[in-house]
Amino acid sequence: MGALVLGGTGWSGGAVLGVFFVSSSIVSRVAGAPAGSDAKGNRRDHWQVIANGAPAALSALLGIEHPLLGLWAVAGSLAAAAADTWATALGAWSPTAPRLLLGGRRVEPGASGGVTWLGSLGGAAGAFLVSATGALGGGGGRLLAVGTLIGFAGMLVDSILGSMWQGRFFCPGCAEPSEWRIHHCGAPTVWRGGVAWLNNDVVNLAATALGAGMAAAAWALWAR
Length: 224
Hints:
6 helices; single chain; 5 strands; mainly alpha; two-stranded antiparallel sheet
């Protein structure tokens, strides 16, 4: 994926990818997993890499013909990924319980779709950092503003999908809710609601693909 980003957008896109990877790894390790979450852990598996990086890598190929278009699409996609990662990590420190974005119902920390003010501010900061890197790399001031907004919007879409349609499971052996068909203890889980195949990785993929698409559309409208 790094090779695709570099091939399509050069070192500007590579810098965006590097800033996303390094900053998201740092905040995830410092904050740790939210209490009550069923996270896979700090080390990303191949599905998480695809969900967070594939839309950016593929959209970078647009830069072969239109360099700025490729940079904008990469920045928009990774801004959405950074916003979600930062929001999850920093939201773990929130002194108040998360609420669902639609309806405002309180949920347990770590529940899919739950948002906090601290997490939302963290998501905005992550999107800003990634977008600022793209802007400094040649995307211009408009990319900073638009990329930050797109990243934040991608985070909100991620939360809505997670709360309304993401699959919900339960591990009978551990008596714990789960996001996965196989619990971290290794036992199969029981489906309790949502769309069974719509797991957190698919939700992340949808958000990052949306970020790339919105950034490409914004470039066509305002920056070309």
